[in-house]
Design goal:
38% helix; globular; alpha/beta; six-stranded mixed sheet; binds adenosine-5'-diphosphate; 263 residues; Rossmann fold; binds magnesium ion
């Protein structure tokens, strides 16, 4: 396993009015790792994702990414979400965000379009170059739909898919942006046990075939312990523990955060 850093979070804080949603967080992520962030509701997990992906500009601290292919290191706080996606970090949302009135295939194509070379003018005149690029995008998008097992649904409207299928489509769309890090905010939430087991297999396959790093938030401990190599635990905006799944399950601070004081 390689140990190139891909994301470094240094002293990251995020305040909303008087509320300290993130309090001096330091975390380093490495290439191809599967990492989980856990913690009670309101701990700051989604806020951390929002800072990493450019939805929020952090109040203090820094976020650096290092592209594993070019080794170029750069500070990304303050950059817009679409710019950060293009630099190689993609995410799915706690509440599914899809283009509900577009087809499954079109939803994935939109993800892939973030790297398209053809500008708006050439798209209007539909040069040969643009048509070739479009054909390639359709081809690549179908390949991704095969990977997430949605190729039979490619012409369905996104809104007609079951919940578990919509989650898989959101993952396919995120993968279409060709990330080196995929962030998944509660991917198993609301899924039944069969859908969760399928999602677990899919994420294992993504890790094996695409060699990308995964960063997961979830409350399903079986899911998290089964997938992750490393776990960070948050409570009240602070990182309170980190370690392997075995270490985390034994950590008294973690048990206290989950079960309260009186145990
Ligand atoms: N946009 C916002 N404005 C004000 N408060 C927010 C905002 N986003 C999150 N918070 C607050 O920050 C804290 C952490 O929230 P969040 O990151 O969503 O927690 P988690 O994902 O761990 O459940 C909560 O107290 C939440 O109410
Ligand atoms: Mg959340």
């Amino acid at each position: 396993m390689s140990h190139n850093k891909i994301l470094e979070i240094q002293n990251l804080s995020m305040e909303f009015g008087g509320l300290q949603a993130l309090d001096s967080i330091n975390i380093t992520f490495y290439e191809k790792e599967v990492v989980a962030i856990i913690g009670p509701n309101g701990a700051g997990k989604t806020t951390l994702f929002n800072c990493i992906t450019g939805v929020y500009v952090p109040t203090r601290g820094n976020i650096f990414i290092q592209n594993p292919y070019t080794q170029m290191k750069e500070k990304i706080n303050g950059l817009k979400p679409n710019i950060i996606t293009r630099k190689g970090m993609a995410r799915t949302f706690q509440n599914i965000r899809l283009f509900k009135n577009m087809t499954v295939l079109e939803n994935v194509m939109i993800g892939r379009h973030c790297h398209a070379k053809a500008g708006i003018i050439s798209a209007m005149v539909r040069s040969k170059k643009t048509r070739d690029e479009e054909a390639r995008i359709i081809h690549d998008s179908r390949e991704l739909l095969k990977k997430v097992n949605l190729v039979d649904e490619q012409y369905e409207y996104a809104k007609n898919l079951s919940y578990g299928y919509q989650k898989r489509l959101e993952i396919a769309r995120a993968l279409a942006t060709k990330p080196f890090l995929l962030l998944l905010d509660e991917p198993a939430a609301g899924m039944n046990s069969k859908e969760t087991a399928e999602l677990m297999d899919l994420l294992k396959e993504i890790k094996k075939d695409l060699h990308i790093a995964l960063l997961l938030i979830d409350h399903d401990m079986h899911f998290i312990m089964n997938l992750s190599e490393k776990i960070f635990v948050m409570d009240y905006g602070k990182k309170i523990a980190e370690g392997t799944p075995e270490e985390i399950q034994k950590n008294p601070l973690v048990i206290k955060a989950y079960l309260g004081e009186n145990i």
